[in-house]
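Progress narrative, work stream C.
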Amino acid sequence: MGVRMGQERDAGGLTRRETLAAGGAVAASVLVPDVASAAKRKKARRRATSGRDVAILGGGMAGLAAAHELIERGFRVTVYERKALGGKARSIGVAGTATGGRRPLPGEHGFRFFPGFYHHVPDSMRRTPFPGNPNGVHDNMVDAMESRSARSNGRADAQLFGIVPDPGEAGRPGGMQRLLVEEVAKQQGIPPHEAEFFVNRVMVFVTSCDERRYGQWEKTSWWDFVGAETRSEEYQRVIARGLTRSLVAAKERLASTRTIGNMAEAFVMNFQNRGNDGAPDRVLNAPTNEAWIDPWIIHLEKLGVKFVVGQTAEALDVRRGRIDSARVRDRRGKRRTVEADWFVSAMPVERARGLISRRVLALDPSLEGLDDLQVDWMNGIQFYLKKPLSLVKGHITFVDAPWALTALTQGQFWADRQFTRDYGDGTVVDCLSVDVSDWDTPGILYGKPAKRCTREEVKNEVWAQIKDHLKDTGEGLGDDHLHSWFLDPAIAWSKRVGMNTNDEPLLVNTVDSWTKRPTAGTEIPNLLLAGDYVQTDIDLATMEGANESGREAVNEILRRSGSKAEPVTKYRLYDPPEFEAAKRVDAELWKAGRPNALDRHP
């Protein structure tokens, strides 16, 4: 059942209030659309069409989610994708590796994981059939119940947050503080007084009203919010740098506190199993395409979605105040014109802004804000192993790695598949899949950032940084483990300029960028936007954010077309009720120009 007329279901099944308490003028300007913009959108809806043909430009997470919702509501949908369906979430067969009737070794842009606070993606999965699965593709997710922080130079490894035995106790403010002190001080090696200070900063954020979050913390970097500049190197490494680069591919001096704070709160709730769809951490039981993307595409094709792959959207043609057509180019350079009643731009921001010509901008000047949004690199490398490696039944973070590495061994989760039997040449037993989140910091082998390393040097450097974290644990990773490796093909070395290019970067949230991000509905009556750069509740470049934005684009089409179809269900992050009273107090403090009651930041 969809949630109608702007109401959205939060992770706990509650309806979150639509309006905010009266706040400061700054917050109001951020949170409440101005009358002129609202009037323009209303005018755009009046000029919208009731036609049913939709062209979706981009076949990644946002485009597939939008196609799924539209086709179920009686629209005629064609998806145009330049590269490969599934976008950054897809898996990539390694060419030339399959022998003896096996499949190619599975490569990928980066490993997939599905926190329990994801709701949009799991919902789409449940509605995608998979042979033998009562809940469709959703049943291909398996729980990853352990996690680990590996340290170098003899420092003790730590377990990351685990399942809290008593979520009720941990959910109370005092319980949350004790939980965070326990985890941060004892597990991560932070000096106790700094751990307590960090916990205070977390409590300041979770008790901050929405007006303060948008009016103050959106404009404050995470580095400044947690007071990193005047604290120990360990604090800077674990709290300021580790929580941003390893988990969300953000830069601690640039990332908005509102964004990182929202994710910190979501992860804490996640590990308490509050408002979760399932276990706090889940992975797939097979390569992504086999477990998820291919069944999704097959299902959508059966429903009537048409896919045209190898088509790059180059321009939008404007006529009489609306999008008349789109121009696309195939891989041989041949151009064609795409006509439709509705156009959904579901491409990443660095490509979507290429469609915003002066004529498009004249119809919606706010789209100029796309030029101010930033992207960065978070790409993966896979190491195929010929000897087993037992690290942890889940994800491992290499805390001291200058390239901000996270990884997991995949074979342990693939119950119905075996590497030696099903993939490669029959000698690979597992895959250590690694995400590289920092491409700008010099490494330990060559003294160069990843962007300036050749593909071979990237491999050597990542391998060395991982070995450096494991050599004192007795688990040792040796060169005799390595069969072969595969670096995301989006990374390409240019000998001419002496550095890499990246065909698939990732949006990063920066200080005060929220108002520059568009909503799904533009002021152009038949142009909608979908992608992880669009304003969403998840507010992060994730599969979940992309899916959420695709759903909102569909809801906007339903509103503008006057459709009687059921609106698409949307979810909100869990909003812990125990902080509501503190937030009401903070709203009054914000109006009075005073700091949060818990804020003792020097």
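Work stream C, second folded protein:
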Amino acid sequence: MKVSLLKINNFRCIKTAELFLEEHTLLVGKNNVGKSTVCEALDLLLGPERLSRTSPIDEYDFYNGKYLSEAGEPIQILIEAVLIDLSEKAKNTFGGHLEFWHKGEKRVLELGEIDTVDAADVETCLRLQLKGQYDPEEDEFWAKTFYSRSPGEEDDGNLTEVYRSAKREIGFLYLRAIRTGSRALSLERGSLLDILLRLGQVRPQLWENTRNKLMELDPPLDDSIGALRPILDNIEARIKQYVPLDSADKPTRLFVSQLTREHLRKTVSFFMSTSPDQAPVPFQELGTGTLNTLVFALLSAIADLKKENVIFAMEEPEIAVSPHTQRRIVDYLLKNTSQSFITSHSPYVIEKFSPEQIKILKRDNNANVTSTSVTLTAGLKPKLFYRKLRPSIAEAILGQAVLVGEGLVEFQVLRAAVDVMETENPDNYPFDLSGITFFDADGDGNLSEYGAFFKSLGLKTFAFYDNGTRTPAEVASIASNFDINKQTAYSDIEKLLAEELPIDIQWSYLQSLVADGLLPTTVLVLPAVKPSDAEVKNFTKQALLYKKGDGRCAEVIKLCTTAQLPQTIREFLESVYSQYPAPAPVDPIDLENLTPDQNEVSVTDAVPAEEDF
């Protein structure tokens, strides 16, 4: 069973969303775009435990916290999903609620389209919807999952509710980033251990047997602690002076729990040791990485008990986990679940997914969320995509823009120049905060391909490249694929630096290379006295070309102030900075000039008047 379509309305940070999902889907995007909201929506709709809570939703589950219209009418949260690839058991379970999904047109067939049912690209589907709203009469919130098709009840507008037992057939499991907290490995209702015990049919006698053993401890807890029994006997004698204690046995006893099932759930704790020299400790005391991996191990155990059908959602598996473990976690999900949804910022996670499985979420100013699939249809060769995925592309698809340098040296020079400009001038809003990724195109030949690829993802694109020999078609292609493209007046970056850097900086840098033994006399011999400007420029170009790519061009850039940077580079970066202006500065709080009503509250102001009651 898999989710093919998910619609969300008025839920948390999403006003509307319509997302078509793959068998396995990686959700990426900037912070607060709605990745976690998508997972929470799936859990609310499909999870068997969420709706069993006393208050499954609250005020802030509604978009902008608004659950009443201006006229005072309840506003609904609506979440709908279409599930496909149904097993025969699921088809029998959901019977008359089934509909038909057109895979090619990505829609549910409507009434009157019975002739289309047997088409090759049409399959059986189950459509579910969640409704949640405020009930003014009860002054409470409610949320329920319904079948979108309920035979016999459609005419009067009623729908049949989906109960917990039916939801378990769907097999949805959700690991939040915060599930590694105090409840993760407890035995409270709905915890991972509780679900595992229920699926393994261990739970029915667990609490009765545990309770009986605790009641029959031999010796009793109060007798096993030598000094404790006399104290309890003394307390009993004192109580008898006021209250008759007629128990045949000792009227006061100590137990490790209140011996109710609910209290045992909260009391029983999972202990574990991680090395031969370590005694078992409560799970909360384990390292964060070990704890996260342990939680995943429990989830995998749950999945193994439901091998035939598991839909798995997981937030940020990279938290406190090594790259090797990240990859193992994702490998497990891809191989052992019918469908998985993962949110991540880790390149080690991102590289495990094929391009079409990566969905970039975007949220406009009206809180409408859309997704863009990563495709190579823009002309980027697969070998280029996978070679650059971990070091650069994974970062780029998480941001808002990409600055493409023609080669490694341009990449290094632009980064160094940005460091200079941002350090010296706080009005230059940092590229990192703007979401701009530096990218090395590995040569002029790949420039247009990368530009087209990043543009297809909805990213802004900027390019910086040399004045090479190009056909008019190549020039037009670069121009069309970059929002800002700067072709320098020079054949290479070394010549640009030699021509535009201040002569004093060039000469000083050359002397430092000689002094540090980094410029052998076999490469060039530097005169003791500074020669003409033309000769210094020639020496600089030779020195920068020697061991090209070792970072020397970036080193000389770091010796500059913003005003001393090469004009071509400075003007290009200024044009990029203009796309992302810095926010208005925040004035410090002026404590001395606060008015009395801002920094003082009188006792009479704090106490309600009698007429307020």
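The first strand starts at residue 2 and ends at 11. No further action is required on this item.
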